[in-house]
Structures are given as C-alpha cells and as structure tokens.
C-alpha cells in the first residue's frame, strides 16, 4: 500500500506571496490532518479534514486554509506569506475512526525569503 | 506553559545502552499517547500507541503511561545506531478531538557504535 505523498517536497517563496501544498492520503483513508513543524515550536496542529469537511482546527491565523476533495486528497493554502511561515509542513492521514493511527507524509519544506 | 513538555536533548548513548525518553503534560483530558520516530528529512513514523495508563511492549521498545503523574516514557533496550533519530511524544483526548495531536518538541538521540 502506497504511503502518504506530499507535493512539492521543497518550495521557496518570498514574503507576501501565497502557496498551495498538496497531500494524497493512503488509499481508503478519509481523514487528513496538517501540521507545521519548526525547530522552536515543534509540531503544531493546523487543521483536520474528514469527508471534505473541516472537523478540527488548531490555533493558526486565517491566512492558513485548507480543503479536501471527494477523493480525500487535500490541499493547504497559505496567503500573504511571512518569514515565520518557513517550516516543514506535514500531512497525516488516518481511517474513519477517531482513534485510528495517523500516518505522516515526508513533508513539504517551505522557505520564505 | 506548553501542553506537552519534552527534554530536547540531544542525547548521546553507546550502542547497547538502555535509553529513557520522557514527556510531561498538563491536560488531564489526554487519553491517547503515542511515540513517533523521525529520521532526518522524513515524516514522523508511529512507534508506539497506548490508550490511558499502563505499559506496552513491542520488541525492544516499551511505552509507559502514568496518568496520575501526567508523565509518559519510552524505553529502548539494546539501542542500535539505527535508532539514531528524533523521538516525539504525542497525545490527544476526547475534548480536543482524537485526530488533533499535541506533540512534544522532540528528543534527538544519537547511538554511538
């Protein structure tokens, strides 16, 4: 079974631009969660989508948004990029149950200049 | 105060040593406790998953949860150079939504041959 895939793997943007990251979950998984990982703050939960609906949301500004498609693929968008948005963005997928294990993708490394 | 505290290390041990990794937390609603291992430039991979208090063993790895003390541990026996990675504790609870994981900042472990 193929794992979680994320594209692109690396991205360089400048302040003020916007960016879209993509995540394809494990086949059959309907939940997709997004996390931001930085050296100072570690992994922080952004939001979770389940069956095309946002089910949970972390404490991030509205510049961070996401969506999920009918095939469970998910995209995350960050508008008006700031230097502090430089991070590894990780996507995790899991099954339908609330206690199902989350499997992480390799992440997208975003650098904002 | 962060909800999950983890000593960032780094921790350096000789091959064959017993490694002890720990996290403390403040939210008594946490019910699900996990340990992830993250190699450089990879996404986290699940090592151990425990519900509520108790011990769980899987090969060389043992996870312990003490909810009364809000303290979790991961023990690695007979450590190998291939265990060199960053270890992240994670947890979630009914009130936050089981797929919203709260992570420690990670402990970087190096096992010296």
Describe it for me?
The complex is a heterodimer of chains A (113) and B (113). Chain A contains no helices and eleven strands. Chain A has 113 residues and is mainly beta. In chain A, the strands form two sheets. In chain A, strands 2, 4, 5, 6, 9, 10 and 11 form a seven-stranded mixed beta sheet that branches. Chain A is globular and about 40 Å long. The mean pLDDT of chain A is 92. With 113 residues, chain B is mainly beta. In chain B, the strands form two sheets. In chain B, strands 2, 4, 5, 9, 10 and 11 form a six-stranded mixed beta sheet that branches. In chain B, strands 1-3-8-7-6 form a five-stranded antiparallel beta sheet, with no helix packed on it.
Briefly summarize what is shown.
The complex is a heterodimer of chains A (113) and B (113). By secondary structure, chain A is an all-beta fold.
Chart the SSEs and their pairings.
The complex is a heterodimer of chains A (113) and B (113).
Chain A: E1 5-7, E2 10-13, E3 19-24, E4 31-38, E5 42-50, E6 53-57, E7 64-68, E8 74-78, E9 87-94, E10 103-104, E11 108-112
Chain B: E1 4-6, E2 11-14, E3 19-25, E4 30-38, E5 45-51, E6 54-58, E7 61-66, E8 71-76, E9 85-93, E10 102-103, E11 107-112
Parallel strand pairs in B: 2-11
Antiparallel strand pairs in B: 1-3, 3-8, 4-5, 4-9, 6-7, 7-8, 9-10, 9-11
């Amino acid at each position: 079974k193929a794992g979680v895939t994320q594209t692109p793997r690396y991205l360089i943007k400048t302040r003020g631009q916007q960016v879209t990251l993509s995540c394809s979950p494990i086949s059959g998984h309907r939940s997709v969660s997004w996390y931001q990982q930085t050296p100072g703050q570690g992994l922080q939960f952004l939001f979770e989508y389940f069956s095309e609906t946002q089910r949970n949301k972390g404490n991030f500004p509205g510049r961070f948004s996401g969506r999920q498609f009918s095939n469970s693929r998910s995209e995350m968008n960050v508008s008006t990029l700031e230097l502090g948005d430089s991070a590894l963005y990780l996507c995790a997928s899991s099954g339908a149950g609330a206690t199902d294990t989350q499997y992480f993708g390799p992440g997208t490394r975003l650098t904002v200049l | 105060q962060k909800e999950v505290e983890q000593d960032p290390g780094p921790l350096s041990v000789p091959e064959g040593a017993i490694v002890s990794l720990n996290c403390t937390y403040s939210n008594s609603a946490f019910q699900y406790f996990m340990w992830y291992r993250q190699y450089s430039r990879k996404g986290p991979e699940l090592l151990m998953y425990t519900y509520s208090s108790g011990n769980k063993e899987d090969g060389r790895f043992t996870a312990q949860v003490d909810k009364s003390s809000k303290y979790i541990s991961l023990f690695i026996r007979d450590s190998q150079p291939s265990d060199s990675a960053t270890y992240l504790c994670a947890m979630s609870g009914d009130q936050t939504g089981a797929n919203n994981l709260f992570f420690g900042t990670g402990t970087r472990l190096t096992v010296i041959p």
